[in-house]
Amino acid sequence: MDWDDLKYVLALHRAGTLVRAGKLLHVNTSTVGRRILALERSLEAKLFDRIGGGYQSTPAALRVVACAEEMELQANAMHRQIKGLDNRVEGSVRITALDNFLDAIVVPALPEFLRRHPGIEVTLESDLRLFELTEGDADIAVRSVKPVKPELVARSLGSFPTGFYQRRGMNWAGHLPLIGLPDRPEHAAYNDSLVAKVPQGRIVARANTEARITELVKLGLGIGFIDCFVGEPDPSLERIPGFGLALAEVWAIAHVDMRRAPRVLATLDFLKDAAARAAGKTVP
Fold it and tell me: What's 161-247's CATH class?
């Protein structure tokens, strides 16, 4: 049996179709199908049933998946531990955060950080999804929720207020137009909260990033919930009184295996300093 075939079983089990599995592995669909057939012949067992337009794992496949996932966990743990042993302040560091935090706080301070640490290569990724630190999707995640998993450690970057903003000088007649997130199940809580905070409003436009929401507000399409470190310094925006502010503590999160790596420590210090400087742009 070719152990490399196990990743194809994992991908098809998780993706459900040859096309999506191929995208996960960056190979074409025929390669996925060929490797699955080769493993089925080697094991003398059927691993997937074709149902409709997708594939369903058989009991035999589920046994293979359990073993493969355990191997994947061990491989990821080994990779993190080896990276964590590197005592040089150099190498790659991947940071994931929401785009307003990256654009307003991280990016302006980045040139000075890279001048101090020319051996570090920084990758910034903005996404509403939660990146999986245990699987190596990122080295540091900036989030507004403190993690509860014991393998993750968090450093507070401070508390930041968020408020309702509109394009300066706008006067709304009748209902208040709101800018929300896309109408998908994972965003339902945010959109419901938005409407609950503004009972006289309704969502008229949606965007999938904070930066796009901010741009729609600046164009005068509606009001949006925007970080004060973005809204206050922008002369084209004004905060709407009467709605109050929401205060959220922000955390820089790393895997316990990586927390002592010098490049990760240096980056955590950088994020803490950059967040402290941005605190002056927020509402007292």
Answer: alpha beta
Residue 147, SS3 per DSSP: coil
Numbered ranges of CATH 3.40.190.10 in the chain: 86-157+248-281, 161-247
The bridge status of strand 152-167 relative to strand 224-227 is antiparallel
pTM of the predicted structure, to 2 decimals: 0.65
Strands 91-97 and 120-126: parallel
Q: Where in the chain is CATH 1.10.10.10?
A: 3-84
3 state DSSP class of 213: helix
**Token pair 């600046």: residue:** 218
**What fold characterizes domain 3-84?**
Arc Repressor Mutant, subunit A (1.10.10)
Residue carrying the six token digits 């080295």: 139
Q: Is 199 helix (H, G, I), strand (E, B) or coil?
A: coil
Note whether 272 and 157 are within 8 A (CB): yes
Alpha helices in 26-106 (DSSP H): 29-43, 59-85, 99-101
Structure confidence by residue, pLDDT tens digits, 156-209: 999 999 999 999 999 888 788 999 999 988 888 888 888 888 888 899 999 988
Residues of the chain with pLDDT under 70: 1-3, 75-88, 127-137, 280-284
CATH number of 86-157+248-281: 3.40.190.10
Q: Which of 275, 283, 277 is nearest to 95 (CA)?
A: 275
Block residue for tokens 């994020």: 271
